[in-house]
Amino acid sequence: MIASRPAARIEAAFARAREKKRAALIPYVVTGDPDCETTVAVIEAIVAAGADIVELGIPYGDPLADGPTIAAAGQRALEAGVTLEDAFAVAERVREHVPIVFFTYYNPVYQYGVDRFAKRAAAVGASGAIVPDVPLEESELLRAAFRHEGLALPLLVAPTTPRERAGRIAHASDGFVYVVSRLGVTGAKREPDVGWIDREITVLRKQTEKPLAVGFGISTPSHVKAVAAIADGVIIGSALIDAYAGCRGALAAERAGAYIASLAAGLRR
Fold first, then answer.
1. pLDDT digits (tens, 9 = 90+) for 78-106
2. Mean pLDDT of all residues in 194-215
3. What's the confidence (pLDDT) of residue 182?
4. In the 8-state DSSP scheme, what is residue 96?
């Protein structure tokens, strides 16, 4: 059953994780890499393995925040002809299993129409979207459209974000606050800065009661354990995509599920 306010499903997922004394696990997958049927199978497998929320990436040709793994996955999907409508269709197929948060950039949203995008996302059962290239000061149009449809719009706090501005971002963010673990783009080959994460989470907790989820560079069980001890959510992207790269269908789903299952113990507090 889909909640009347789509963003409420995100809140419920974090609440369930808290009740179980663990952090929420938020994997990221790219729509249509290598095909949409595989994407559906992978999402079903990672939910069975313990995913609480899924970020569903919409392939885009100029992904500013994406490292080599995710950028390559997006390019493969684009070359296969995957579209924004395909992402909506995938979300609609898996929405009963897990809250879906699209990960996209502003250009596709703007070209589609901001209000139209929000209405379509809500109609297919998504719970919100992350649009990392829209700064707080330019986000009101998007936030208004999302509010109207009951969708979450998590905003990002980075290591370079000034303290006062981080507080304003946390206040404006909906669903959760996305805390970027280190400078640079996404990727599994650079270590998250756990010391900075700890300090940032400590300060942000004084500024907001919203869930704080950490992403970028988290790939191993030890990373997950370290971040889960501090934050409310752990976001996994590149390492998951690497786990099933080059595979399709059931094999991709098996490898994705096994990788997510290997992280589950580290979520406990």
1. 999 999 999 999 999 999 999 999 999 99
2. 94
3. 61
4. T
Which CATH number goes with the domain that contains 30? Answer: 3.20.20.70
Specify whether the CB–CB gap between 163 and 137 falls below 8 A.
Answer: no
The verdict on whether 115 is a catalytic residue reads no
Number of domains in the chain: 1
Catalytic residue, candidates 33, 35, 44, 66? 66
From the candidates 55, 86, 174, 242, which is the catalytic residue? 55
- In the chain, the N- to C-terminal Cα span, in Å, equals 30
Which strands sit side by side in the sheet containing 233-236, from one edge to the other?
128-130, 100-103, 54-57, 24-30, 233-236, 212-215, 177-180, 155-157
Residues 259 and 219: their CA atoms lie apart, in Å, by 10
- How many residues can be counted in the chain? 269
Nearest to 155 by CA among 143, 140, 137, 173: 173
What domain range is 225 assigned to?
A: 8-260
Rounded Cα–Cα distance for residues 171 and 181 (Å): 19
Told to judge if 55 belongs to the known catalytic residues of this protein, a careful annotator would answer: yes
